[in-house]
Amino acid sequence: MNRETLHYLETFEGWLLIIFSDISSYRFQAFSPVGEKMGDLRFAAALRYRGSFNSVAAAVQQGRKFITGAKL
User: Fold this and answer.
1) Per-residue pLDDT reduced to its tens digit, 9-44
2) What is this structure's pTM?
3) Measured between alpha carbons, how far is 20 from 40 in angstroms, rounded to an integer?
4) Is-contact 53 41, C-beta < 8 A?
5) What is the DSSP string of 5-21?
6) Which phi and psi (to 5°) does residue 17 adopt?
7) CB 7: neighbour CB atoms within 10 A?
8) Which pLDDT does position 60 carry in this prediction?
9) CA 48 to chain CA mean position, Å
10) E-assigned strand segments in the chain
11) Strand, helix or coil at 42?
12) C-alpha span between 41 and 36 (Å, rounded)
């Protein structure tokens, strides 16, 4: 059974950013102001040296970048 932990929840300008992790990866989900799921990205912790998330802070930063890009 895959158990995920909710690490972070942030809203800004109507957007919702959620960061989860399980034993091997971090993932974020982004929702638009009207509730549409705009992103769901998962990165394995083992690949952290190839640009993936190795911390909650890194996942939050990448999620914010995604939302900023999605709004343009």
Assistant:
1) 888 888 888 888 877 777 788 888 898 888 776 655
2) 0.67
3) 10
4) no
5) EEEEEEEETTEEEEEEE
6) -120, 125
7) 16
8) 82
9) 15
10) 5-12, 15-21, 25-31, 37-44
11) strand
12) 15
